[in-house]
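Subject: design request, 142 residues
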């Protein structure tokens, strides 16, 4: 191993930027999850399936549950955000999207550091993750 072994242990500028965005996003996502869960648990927002009826669904398979409760797949949950048992999806979706933001934010850093190939890869990764989540490609997006 040539050079200073301690230098290889230092984070690169893009790693620091990525980690900073990821940390802030993680904390914000956690706050969103806790806040929306509190809205549900405290009964501030009425649930789609009343708490008194939820045990009827526990023995059903996922497909049976979706059919019985008349719940659709994909991004349909966005239209259900008025219900307490769906509003917590906001924090989950936010957390899932933080990685896409991280990749997009490091593209200019990589480009500036003359890592153009890695910048292209980071951009393509963000695009692919975004397309997969959107459901446009028929991948089942959420």
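Subject: RE: design request

Done. Sequence follows.
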């Amino acid at each position: 191993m040539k050079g200073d072994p301690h230098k290889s242990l230092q984070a690169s500028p893009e790693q620091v930027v990525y980690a900073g965005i990821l940390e802030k996003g993680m904390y914000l996502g956690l706050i969103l999850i806790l806040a929306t869960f509190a809205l549900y648990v405290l009964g501030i927002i009425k649930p789609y399936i009343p708490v008194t009826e939820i045990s009827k669904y526990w023995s059903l398979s996922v497909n049976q549950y979706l059919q019985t409760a008349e719940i659709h797949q994909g991004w349909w949950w966005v239209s259900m955000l008025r219900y307490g048992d769906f509003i917590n999806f906001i924090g989950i979706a936010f957390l899932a999207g933080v990685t896409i933001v991280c990749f997009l934010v490091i593209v200019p850093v990589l480009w500036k550091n003359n890592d153009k190939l890695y910048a292209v890869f980071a951009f393509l990764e963000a695009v692919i993750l975004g397309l997969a989540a959107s459901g446009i490609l028929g991948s089942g997006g959420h």
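The chain has one domain: 14-134.
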